[in-house]
Design brief:
Blueprint: E1 2-5, H1 9-19, H2 25-43, E2 49-55, E3 60-66, E4 72-77, H3 84-88, E5 95-96, E6 98-103, E7 110-116, E8 125-129, E9 132-133, H4 137-148, E10 153-161, H5 163-173, E11 180-187, E12 190-191, E13 197-198, H6 204-209
Parallel strand pairs: 1-11, 4-5, 4-6, 4-8, 8-10, 9-10, 10-11
Antiparallel strand pairs: 2-3, 6-7, 12-13
Helix pairs in contact: 1-2, 4-5
Bound molecules: uracil.
Length: 212
């Protein structure tokens, strides 16, 4: 697994506002959207392109365009939905699939409750959106699921990651034989006994949508 913690003043500024418990849901949603667009720029460095020839008003030129098959963006419900527009803004040709994962708050195990994805993801570059990489269980299961359907390149975009979660994702995905990258705005200190990231930003779904 490759970890990319994006070091940029705009990312750090927006993240600080997201962390602030006084930030309301409308501002939280807006800043999440902006932050994800900045992370998406880094996350798509490996996006596959094909060379093309085109005509400028002056001459023939070479260029590139995103190549087939279309990239797949997969928000993990519920909180990953708040990251979708920020990601597809930079990848407008992507297809979007949905994965509903819920964490049992006692066992902290993730299970799938919804899935709208093509059966065949052979050769697809997939971008998983999950704001909080906490225990890593949800992300590791989601990555395994996409790879079992043929995805051959996975990039997870997270607002925050905990060291414990990164370790688990590394352990559970290292045998998959597929490159896995985690792009995040920061790696925080640790998880608390309830599985929350410390210092973190609280429950991302609640902060985005204002309800538990
Ligand atoms: N999920 C969240 O929304 N926040 C955390 O801190 C951990 C998991």
């Amino acid at each position: 697994m490759r970890l990319l913690a994006v070091d940029h003043p705009l990312v750090a500024h927006k993240l600080a506002v997201l962390r602030d418990k006084h930030t309301n849901s409308a501002t939280f949603r807006q800043l999440t959207d902006e932050l994800v667009t900045l992370l998406a720029y880094e996350a798509t460095r490996d996006a596959r392109v094909a060379e093309i020839e085109l005509e400028t008003p002056v001459a023939t030129a070479k260029g590139v365009k995103l190549s087939a098959p279309k990239p797949m963006v997969v928000p993990i419900l519920r909180a990953g939905l708040g990251m979708l527009d920020g990601m597809t803004r930079l990848l407008p040709t992507a297809e979007v699939g949905f994965l509903g994962m819920i964490r049992n708050e006692e066992t902290l195990q993730a299970t799938t409750y919804a899935n709208r994805l093509p059966d065949d993801l052979t050769g697809r570059q997939c971008y998983l959106l999950d704001p909080m990489l906490a225990t890593g269980g949800t992300l590791a299961s989601s990555i395994g699921y996409l790879v079992s359907r043929g995805a051959d390149h996975i990039t997870a975009v997270c607002l925050l990651a905990a060291p414990e979660g990164l370790e688990l994702v590394e352990r559970e995905t290292s045998q998959l034989g597929v490159p896995v990258t985690v792009v995040t705005a920061a790696v925080d200190e640790r998880l608390n006994e309830k599985g929350y990231i410390v210092p973190g930003l609280g429950d991302a779904g609640d902060r985005l949508y204002g309800v538990a």
